[in-house]
Amino acid sequence: MPIEKRLSFTYEGETYRIEGVKVFRCDHCGEEIITAEEIRRMEKVARQKMESQFTGKFILRVSPDLHQRLSQMARKNRRSLNQEVASRLEESLG
Ligand SMILES: [Zn+2]
Asked: 22 CA distance to ligand 1 centroid (A)?
């Protein structure tokens, strides 16, 4: 019977903690074995965790001076601070 463990799993360069991973232990040498099917399940869970991170919302920390300058530019361009910053980021990434 497998035991269930919480494991760290690296997927596309990011490490995710996966709960309830079924791990078999060899009766002879004690080596822990994870089936290919369980690894595929871990990949699927990691992919779902990765995708759910990108909601389009995050907190950005900048200096008070930059905050003020961006706010002034937004007013000048008749758009929200959010639109101002998003537009500038889009432009910089091309
Ligand atoms: Zn063994």
From this structure: 17
State how far the alpha carbon of 49 is from the alpha carbons of 4, 19, 57, 84, 86, in Å.
19, 12, 16, 29, 24
Domain contains 9: yes
Q: Are residues 7 and 32 in the same domain?
A: yes
59 occurs within a structural domain:
no
Distance between Cα 38 and ligand 1 center (Å): 19
Taking the C-alpha atoms of residue 55 and residue 58, their distance in angstroms, rounded to an integer, is 8
As for how many domains the chain has, the answer is: 2
Task: Print pLDDT tens along the chain (94 aa).
Answer: 899 999 999 998 989 999 999 999 999 999 999 999 999 999 999 999 988 988 899 999 999 999 999 999 999 999 999 999 999 999 999 8
How remote is the CA of residue 25 from the centroid of ligand 1, in Å? 8
Q: How far is the CA of 45 from the centre of ligand 1 (A)?
A: 28
Which domain, by its residues, includes 88?
A: 64-93
